[in-house]
Amino acid sequence: MTAQVAERLIYGGNKEIGLFSNPLSLYLKQTGISFVSPHTANWRGYVGTWKIIETTGIERLYLVKLSAHKSYEEIVGVSDVFPGFDKVFAHWFTGQLRCPQGAQLEYRHMGYGSIYEYDLLMDFKQGVLVNKHARHNEVPPKKEEIDIPSFLRRGQ
Amino acid sequence: MDALLAWRPQTWVDYVLLYIVPGFGMAIYFIAKTIRERPSEFARGLLNVLGKKLTLVDRIKDGAVYCFALACVLLGWPGFVIWYFKNKKAEVARQEFQDRPEFDCAPEYLVAVVNPVDAEITSYVIDPLGKVPALPFGHLNKAWGNFLANMLDEQDELWSFYIPMGSKVGKYQRMCRAEIRGYAQVRDGKILAEFITESD
Description:
The complex is a heterodimer of chains A (156) and B (200).
Chain A: E1 7-10, E2 16-19, H1 25-31, E3 46-55, E4 58-69, E5 75-76, H2 78-81, E6 88-89, E7 95-106, E8 115-125, E9 128-136
Chain B: H1 2-6, H2 12-36, H3 41-49, H4 56-99, E1 110-113, H5 116-121, H6 141-149, E2 157-163, E3 168-169, E4 174-175, E5 180-187, E6 190-198
Antiparallel strand pairs in B: 1-2, 2-5, 3-4, 5-6
Helix pairs in contact in B: 2-4
């Protein structure tokens, strides 16, 4: 599986950072909406831009922009998927968002598998930010031939 | 015909002959199956063009293999019968697993029976920016409506469920990375549908 294009997150200013989580997936699953994959680096068929907005001391997660492939050529936005809304409060999202930061330590040709120096981890409860912390990642140890099951090893 | 029906095994040879009768039937079945599935004339022609024509040695080898297989079937037919039924059973179990719906909720995660009206009353979402419709379950209202629309049977019960983080969920028992909450349609203790209100 090809490495997948990340979602975007705006947090603490207007700078966009990569987001290795898909908060929209539950909504799409529940409503039965699906998009067309435009290329192998975007199997889910959309890229959402999310923003954490603070009101009355509470930080909430909003979907502010969407570029979703209804067909290969036709791209729809937030107001097409959520009629009457230019941005959407992600009240269904309970879980952790992972934003990779710093240099890429290892590239993995799969999903959101690449490893970066830091991960900014943010915990949400019903779309409300409840906790955040950073995780420092190490360069993963190189795998030796012996660590790989014999049937997967390269031929001599 | 009467002579055949009146026949009773008397020597050990008779008993052996009696034993291999089902094996003989099975061998006939396998031979017919092999003949039916043999390569078509077109495929044989293609193999000839590719230089993969069967030589005399290949035919002798094939013949030896068929003789050996025939002997195995004649003598070991009970083993084939057992294998056939075991295989059939495993196939049915595989099909049942494939047909099973992919729900996160399982009976152990059900919390309590709830009234749909009560569920709706507690489901309104507060957002100071007004980016949620003022409907039960906010943006998930349409999905909720579809979920309720399928609860037509009088026996159907609406249950709330809660799945703690780290639990194994779904048909493939994947580990959930966040807690999951929602409602399930339950009939006779069996989960028929689920509506997830929060998850990652």
